[in-house]
Design goal:
elongated, mainly beta, single chain, 5% helix, 8-stranded antiparallel β-sheet, 20 strands
């Protein structure tokens, strides 16, 4: 599931990335382009490029002249390293096309650290671009602090009495939600753990057009109290910048779970001004001996 989610986000992002080119002069000098299934309305392999034997470096730039995608060609086909850049100017995704028909691709966190490495096969043939992950090679995932995902500390056993998350596996929310806000880009990654703890990685990344902004990265950790059903922060670790966070929460109704808790993490600058709010709604259940039962009358306040 995680591998498929990554593929959808990766290809989808790149399709959006190259979308919006109004002139054929923005298209590569080939029918093919690296990393994308479509470029505007054209399917990869059917681009309007007329040069079928182009060899060299091609770059796609935005209206400000910033490089958004770049890669190499050999005889009209993508080969070697291709890279795509976020608004911050940092690499968002890269893919290396080996001449034997295999590839490996890397997706990055907003601060440039690797998030995932994948492997597969590809072909630029007969006016089509095809790519397929290699089932024999498992994708490699990294945590935001650079640890191999498989090497991170294991959560404690799941709560057997009291309030707990309804989802029983560790990585229940792991998505990208880059949202431009003025000259800054924000991104957050929530993870609810089965031991009633949660982790939020929050980023504040300056846009490349305004490089004077402060880059910030922090990790906020918290816990759902099994007795009261309330959530609170237990630790905040600043990796970059001088940002702070504040957590608020409230009980809300949930069609699926009956009851849920809405958590809002507000990211503030050094002057205490709110910059961005990160939100998540998590379903709750009350259990006795691991089995769901009706919660006590007082429940959540």
């Amino acid at each position: 599931m995680r591998k498929r989610l990554y593929q959808l986000m990766s290809w989808g992002f790149l399709a959006v990335l190259v979308n919006g080119c109004a002139s054929n002069s923005f298209y590569p000098p080939s029918r093919y382009v690296g990393q994308a299934d479509y470029m505007n309305e054209f399917r990869n392999g059917q681009l309007p490029g007329k040069q079928n034997d182009f060899t060299g470096l091609w770059q796609y730039r935005d209206q400000r002249g910033n490089i958004k995608t770049e890669g190499w060609y050999k005889n009209g086909k993508p080969v070697g390293l291709w890279k795509s850049y976020a608004a911050s100017g940092l690499v968002y995704s890269s893919m290396f096309y080996a001449e034997d028909g295999t590839y490996f691709n890397v997706s990055y966190y907003p601060d440039g650290l690797p998030w995932m490495v994948g492997f597969g096969t590809y072909a630029f043939e007969d006016g089509r671009y095809t790519h397929k992950s290699d089932p024999k090679k498992k994708s490699i995932y990294y945590t935001p602090d650079g640890l191999l995902d498989s090497h991170k500390p294991k959560p404690l056993p799941r709560i057997e009495k009291g309030w707990r998350w309804t989802l029983s596996y560790s990585h229940v929310t792991s998505g990208r939600s880059c949202i431009p806000s003025g000259i800054m880009w924000f991104e957050d990654k929530w993870t609810l753990h089965k031991d009633n703890t949660f982790t939020v990685w929050a980023y504040c990344i300056p846009n490349s057009a305004s490089p004077d902004g402060e880059m910030a990265k922090l990790c906020a950790k918290g816990r759902l109290d099994p007795v009261t059903g309330e959530v609170s922060l237990t630790e905040t670790i600043k990796h970059l910048g001088d940002m702070s966070v504040e957590l608020s929460s409230k009980q809300v109704d949930s069609e699926r779970d009956g009851v849920a808790v809405e958590m809002i993490l507000t990211m503030k600058d050094r002057r205490g001004k709110a910059l961005r709010k990160f939100e998540i709604t998590a379903g709750l259940e009350y259990v006795e001996n691991g089995k769901r039962v009706e919660p006590p009358m007082k429940g959540l306040e």
